[in-house]
Amino acid sequence: MSEARTPARPAAPAEPAAPGRGERRAMLAILLLALLVRLVALPVAPTEGLPDAISYRTAGAAFFTDGGITNPYLMPFYPLVLALGSGARGWQIVVDLVASLAIVWLIGALARRLFRSAAAGLLGALMAALYPMAIFYGVVGLSESVFVALVLGAYLALYDRRFLLSSVIFVLAILTRPALEIFAPFVLVWTILVVHRLGAVRAGRALVVYGLVYVVLMAPWWLHNYERYGSFVRLHLASGFVLYSGNNPQNASGGGIGGVDLDTTKFADIADPVERDRRYKEAAVAFIKEDPARFGRLALVKFQRMWRMTPFAPEYRDNPAAILATLAFLPVFLLALATVVRHWRRFWYLSPIYGFFAFTTLVHMITIASLRYRFPLEPFAIVLAAPTMAAIAARLPLVGPFLDRTTRADAAASEQAR
């Protein structure tokens, strides 16, 4: 009598060969193209007037003279990097361009790694090079490009089984923007157990190492905050404000614009930033408890706002450039969705990326939402879109043969390895 067996998860395809000369040249050309379009966009981008960009430069310029960061709403890594150039706008441009080019390369490397396809890697990088929102965030002086580059790097290290490196990069990403703090150790353990199937002992050991890395890298920030505020502040003092921004009687749109989505006048007299942050949290929690149904409806509004395909802000709704930039996500989304369907048998292999989509969306359904907060997910959507784009491109008369010639050495090497 035969025993019934549970079907095993399909094994991942064989690793591709190392990039050949043609592929390396193509990637270099894509990176040069990415740099060119960002340099062209730089003169017309709103690089001077964005309040957050000014805050980062100000913090960077005063980092060493003030003994740290005086703005309680900022995390330290991006201002510290800007401080190496005294917070100068020129240095900020260099930092953001380097991070933006790193995103292009990392998207290509991750797509190549996940789908074992040199063509997917090249086309993913090409999409990232020309993707309007990646260009925008690469030149406007915000922390998005640095943060996204770190997250992509952490994921690439995770899939390459370089767990110590991934832990270091994840903590640096938390020191840039703290939303990943809860998710990072979870996805580390999940990837070890579900993707690599290395067992609970290996996962536990990696989690301990992650904890040590977290403490070592975060400790200077904790000391800085204790000296500045006289109490332990684990991250920054913006979490209460963000939670209240999205959960207060005035908010109907799901955003966080002062005077539109919230009124902070009743908190203006609280001088202590720690106390003010606590009061914001208390007010937000009280709002949620008093009317959970409204909280639920507002969460759906935030979901819609985060995943809409056109700008929400009134100043951008009639701007053709802004509309085209946001609409560029639509084909990426559809291609990514096609990949999810086409590769449904590899659901568990790709589940760390799916989890990042779910976690980030949930965070902003609870707090505040905008297209800006979706941007960290869009490079991962490009990664998912890349293999379907490669499958389409392979059928095109000119593009298919070019990709074949470019990646032929890799395909031949892979065939010999089999």
Would you count the extended β strands for me? Answer: 0
End-to-end separation in angstroms reads 36 Å
Report the order of strands and helices.
Answer: HHHHHHHHHHHHHHHHHHHH
What is the overall silhouette? globular
Total domain count? 1
Structural class: mainly alpha
State the major sheet. Answer: none
Task: State the helicity in percent bands.
Answer: 55-70%
What is the secondary structure topology, with strand pairs?
Blueprint: H1 21-41, H2 51-61, H3 77-83, H4 89-115, H5 118-130, H6 132-137, H7 144-159, H8 163-176, H9 183-195, H10 199-229, H11 239-246, H12 273-290, H13 292-307, H14 314-317, H15 320-327, H16 329-342, H17 347-366, H18 371-374, H19 378-393, H20 399-417
Distinctive features:
globular, 20 helices, 418 residues, mainly alpha
